Amino acid sequence: MSDSLPDGITGDDLADSLRAIDRGSPLVQHLTNEVTMNDVANLTLHWDALPVMADSPGDAGEMAAGAAAILLNTGQVPEGKVEAMHDAGATAAERDIPVVLDPVGVGATPTREAVAEALLEDLDFSIIKGNYGEISALAGVEAEVKGVESVGEYDEIEDAARSLADSTGATVVASGVEDVVATDDGAVRLAAGHERLSEVVGTGCMLGATLAAFRGAVDDAPTAAVHGALAFGIAGERAAEMPHEGPASFRTNFHDAVAGFDPDTAAELDLAGRLERVD
C-alpha cells in the first residue's frame, strides 16, 4: 500500500521539498529518449538535482547503484535501451532506490504496450506518470493515444489513476489540463500550469524528470508527486508571465522559471485552492 496523499499544501511545504533537493543534490539517472534528453538533463539541473543519462546495458545498472532516483522513459524503445532499463531497475530493487516510470506512447503500438507491461511485471515503481491516455491504457481502460499524445475525453481519469495505483502500489500522476495524483486510497486534482506547456515538445518528459528529482530528495512518494507536479505547473505559469514571442521563447522562459523557483519564492506562494480532493 502506498503512503497517503497530503490533505493540503502551503508555500512552506513546497519550500521544504525544494530545500531537500538543494541540500541533497540527488543524482537522478535517466533512461530516456534522445528527442528530449537535453531538456530533461537541464531541467533536472535547474531543480538543483544532478542528471546522468547512463542508458546502455551494463553501464546503466552500474550507474544506478549511486543514484537517488531513476527515471525510465519509453519514448524510444530500442532493444538495448529496454535491456538497460531492466538492468537499472534490478539494481534499484536491490538498493531500495525509487524508480519513476514515464510510459510514453503506451496505447499507441503493441510494441510499447509490451515494453510497459514487461517493466510493470518485473519492477516496482514509486511513481508512474503519464498523460490521461497513457494512464488509462495502463489501467486497462479504453484510451486513444496518437503517437505520444493523448486525445479524446477522459471523464473518469481519477478512477483509472486510482485503479493503476491499486494494481501497482505506485503513486500515479495523470497529466492533463489539470493533473491528477492518485494512490490506492484517494486522488487529488492540481490546478496549476499554462496552455503554452502543450506547445513545446518534451514538457511531459520534463515533468517526469521533475518528479524523479523531487522523489530523489523527498522520502514520501505522494508528497513528492504532488509537490513536483505543482511546482512544475506554477513554473509554467511564471514562464508565461515573462516576455516571449511564441513557443520557442516560452521554452527558454520555462527553464529560467524553474531555475529561479527557489525555496524563498515557494514560501511566499498562496496555494489555497490549488489542490482539490476528488475521492
TrEMBL record:
Keywords: ATP-binding, Kinase, Magnesium, Metal-binding, Nucleotide-binding, Thiamine biosynthesis, Transferase. GO terms for molecular function: ATP binding; hydroxyethylthiazole kinase activity; magnesium ion binding. Pathway: Cofactor biosynthesis; thiamine diphosphate biosynthesis; 4-methyl-5-(2-phosphoethyl)-thiazole from 5-(2-hydroxyethyl)-4-methylthiazole: step 1/1. It catalyses: 5-(2-hydroxyethyl)-4-methylthiazole + ATP = 4-methyl-5-(2-phosphooxyethyl)-thiazole + ADP + H(+). Its cofactor is Mg(2+). Substrate binds at M53, G202. ATP binds at K129, S175. It comes from the Archaea. One of its GO terms (biological process) is thiamine diphosphate biosynthetic process. Belongs to the Thz kinase family. Catalyzes the phosphorylation of the hydroxyl group of 4-methyl-5-beta-hydroxyethylthiazole (THZ). This is Hydroxyethylthiazole kinase. It comes from Haloterrigena gelatinilytica. The gene is thiM.
